[in-house]
Design a protein that fits this description.
single chain; alpha/beta; six-stranded parallel β-sheet; 6 strands; 43% helix
Length: 223
């Protein structure tokens, strides 16, 4: 019997926020729920709940003579292997992703890939030939971030670089600003609606591929 889950598409949702009741957690839940409503599979990887170790050790660096893939990284690669989409969901702290998310990229997404392979676009990582979406939040307003040039920097950092380095089919980016304690429910609902729309967009791309639609060129959607 055919595996309908694989036929319909598989999303891995990587959440990096220490508070299980945070707005980021709500974003991850909304994304997963929407993917499942679209008939596709969503697998949540809550890095803090998993106690993921973000520290890259010297013997894990692929350009070292004694290079090895650590057991916890190998298990994570098996969990996300063969997915159609990776969704990264995390807050922006001091202008950067949390160390937990950066460590996941260092240890898992870049496992076994050397800097030269990234530059030459010959690296084969778990994202290669798949789709990616990054959803970030911050306490600062979008207008203030734009004045600092930070929104464009976030796009470069969180999506465009990985999109190019791993020859992905598409990358999508959504930033949600002004996420503070006491956020009004109606504003939260509006933001979660945007998250669901992004999820539907990515699901539609996966469905089109699965059901034989004409191949689409690689695209970066930073809107």
């Amino acid at each position: 019997m055919a595996d309908l889950t694989k036929a319909h598409g598989r999303h891995v949702v990587v959440l990096a926020h220490p508070d299980p009741t945070s707005f980021n957690a709500a974003v991850a839940q909304a994304y997963c729920d929407t993917v499942r409503e679209c008939g596709q599979e969503a697998l949540l990887r809550d890095l803090y709940a998993m106690n993921f170790d973000p520290v890259l050790r010297n013997d894990e660096r692929p350009d070292r003579q004694q290079f090895r893939i650590a057991p916890d990284v190998r298990a994570e690669l098996e969990a996300i292997g063969g997915c159609d989409v990776v969704a990264f969901i995390y807050p922006i702290w001091f202008g950067l992703p949390p160390a937990m998310m950066k460590g996941y990229v260092d240890r898992v997404i870049g496992a076994g890939v050397t800097p030269r392979q990234v530059q030459e676009r010959t690296g084969e990582g778990p994202l290669t030939a798949g789709h990616m979406i990054s959803i970030t939040t911050s306490g600062a307003r979008d207008a203030w971030l734009d004045e600092q040039g930070q929104v464009e920097s976030l796009r470069e950092l969180s999506s465009r670089y990985l999109f190019r380095a791993f020859s992905m089919k598409s990358a999508h980016y959504l930033h949600i600003g002004s996420i503070v304690e006491g956020l009004a429910e109606r504003f939260a609902d509006e933001h979660l609606y945007d998250v669901r729309e992004k999820a539907r967009t990515v699901c539609a791309k996966v469905a089109a591929e699965r059901y034989g639609a004409a191949a689409q060129p690689s695209v970066f959607d930073g809107s």
